[in-house]
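Journal club prep, notes for RB
We'll compare a predicted complex against what the paper describes. Inputs for the iron/sulfur cluster case:
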Amino acid sequence: MRPEDYDMNVEIAWCPGCGNFSILRALKMALADLDILPERLVLVSGIGQAGKLPQYLKCNHFNGLHGRSLPAAVAIKATNPQLTVIDVSGDGCMYGEGGNHLIHNIRRNPDITTIVHGNMVYGLTKGQASPTSQPGFRTPVQVQGVFEEPFNPLAVAVALGATFVARAFSGDVERTRDILVEAISHHGYALVDIFQPCVTFNRVNTFQWFREHTYYTDHDPADRLLALEKSLEGYGGGRFPLGVIYRVEGERTFEENLSVYHGDATPLWRRSHDPDKLKRLIESKRMV
Amino acid sequence: MSRVRGGENSTLIRVSSTPVRAFIERVDVLFALSPGAVEHMDGRVKDTLVIADEEFHEEGAISLPIMGEAEKLGGRIFANVVAAGAAANLFGVREETFDEAVRSLFERKGPDIVEADLRAGRKGYELGDELREHLEISIEPQPSVREHVVLNGTEAVGIGCIAGGCRFMSSYPMTPSTPLQVFISENAAEFDMVFEQAEDEIAAINMCLGASYAGARSLVATSGSGFALMEEAVGLAGMIETPVVIYIGQRPGPAVGLPTRTAQEDLNLALYAGPGEFPRAILAPGKLEDAPEIAAHAFNLADRYQIPVFLLSDQYLADLYYDLPSPQIGEEPSYHITRTWEGYRRFEFTADGISPRGIPGYGSGTVRVDSDEHDEEGLITEDLDVRRRMVEKRNLRLEMLKDDTLKPEVYGDNSSALICWGSTYWLVREAIESSGADVSMVHFSQVYPLPHDTLELLESFDRTAVVENNYRGQFADLLKLEGFEADERFRRYDGMPFSVEGVAGFIEEVLL
Ligand SMILES: Cc1ncc(C[n+]2csc(CCOP(=O)(O)OP(=O)(O)O)c2C)c(N)n1
Ligand code: SF4
């Protein structure tokens, strides 16, 4: 496949210059590299500027509720494991409204990928703080500046044993593409947090700022303690590492643990109905 | 009370030569297995033969050494089985039959436990001989019940869910919906279903919508507070025209209310749940005999109209057991899934408002659904004309649904009627039968939308009363919206189901 094969002929509602455009480009490139057919691909998203991405890519899409993309995504994969399922979300959507689902889907280890557009701000609702906003960030709502500690998705994911954890920067399309290729082909749950400058509502964390505050790491991603250490970098000063932070292979996925798929990969909706089995179940309720 | 162990608890068992299926206040024989038991049955112990443990020194009661014997057998834990043995003897149950029941109940706990329980049962039988001197009970054995199965309301619904092709269930535990979660998960491997305990109710219903979008018939079970958390996703189901079956085991609210008691308080919650306007159907089985068929129907209805369908149950129905002929479940579910093609549009405008439903991975098209207002392709739109047409498309199906309803059951041929819905079926019916009153019953097992001729039917009675387990009279209000105002409302909202005596008393005082 070619990246253009995923093009949609629709008007894109993002602001000119927004970091979302390069994420879309990198994703199309990754999908083309992996030869994933649009009709086999499902993009699931929540609500926000990031959540609109599936609209701009030729594929099946489920754009659900704010923060609730993961439950839908994990169920789509569990209903038909033959589909490639990618969840696309903003940092507010995934780490704020959807935080609980993130935690528990890491525990489930479904074979899906989550891509979070980390712009450290709420875009669609016009510039309030997000869970990843940096301390001191002023907004019309956080009038004295943010004073909470920013949410650290990588540390949380590594601590919970997510099987693939990575960070990318949308200003670098090529490397983002590579990371996405690895994430999507990973067997198990993959979380990719992508720094994405919001040129309209975040005048602090700009392309330039992210360039200055990041570097590519080349540590051994199989080393969990080291990964945890890496995931803590950048908070409270210093630079944020980019690249694959943590990766563990061979863990059983959510779908593999479901008894229906033991020895049978048929999607749920294709399974036939067996009235005799039901009769036997009813008969088992006979007392004498 | 919401306790796992300890506290007072009671189980009402009715024994008769003819079928009895409803709750009554009267207690003929009470086995008191704790010192507070008689007090716990406050007001219901009149002309009652009380059989109490000799340790309790219960006045006027027959004393049996139940605890002492249990302890000799290995512990107080056997007291229940000793008492059950005595009761079985009193009611003329053959000892072999009782032993068989003990075996099947404790089988999975291992041979040692089964042996001990059998011994406890035998001891109970011995004690029971003594009871026969105090009470003469004549019950004719009914050989026809040999053909019967014993179900509770949860199992009856669960069987229907499987029959209706349920393939996916995700839920979060909440009494009294948890038993249905247990039933489906126990049967998941055998019937090719996925059961997942979600991290919360919001996840549960969003998972169901994902599963349904991908083609699996899906079910979520919860109770009032849990359902309150699901409301937003009910709107999503409406917007993306995706089927889902929502089982609500009602219990008294608001908030967490009385966790282990019963109510019919969440009709309005189901009726109005979710932002915006979109169609839905609400079914409320009244009896175990047709709960399987109704539950199966819920899945077919949801699939045919691409809407959320509610199954309203409650603690009373969910936990009620009785024997009944094996449910015969009709036709195989018919699926309404289409293979997609290049240029397929999920929300295509059609004459009846129902677009062919494709699912991802089946055919060469792509299936796009969006919670934002969208065009036929599922792409976000702000075109107000498309918006208007989409609203009409979604709501058009409500009109079709009105032509495809479960008819209310009319029992009797009188000029007065008791109108009821859901779990009160046998309570009202037995009250009418036992009082011998010239009153009919109109029972609705579909409460929304109502059949077109509802008004006509209800207006054919001279006097009517609506019987329901809530304070407001929510169904009576719904009927009023349809243009029918009942003369009376008989309500109970203390957390208990109606009793046969209670309804009969109401008939005598008010309707006759
Ligand atoms: C339940 C609910 N609450 C609030 C909103 C309003 N809302 C829409 S998007 C959004 C935040 C978006 O921020 P983020 O997820 O960071 O995405 P971005 O727009 O920055 O890409 C909010 C609060 C909503 N749609 N639903
Ligand atoms: S508001 Fe920010 S995130 Fe949204 S499109 Fe504009 S620049 Fe991008």
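Talking point for the session: Chain A has a mean pLDDT of 97.
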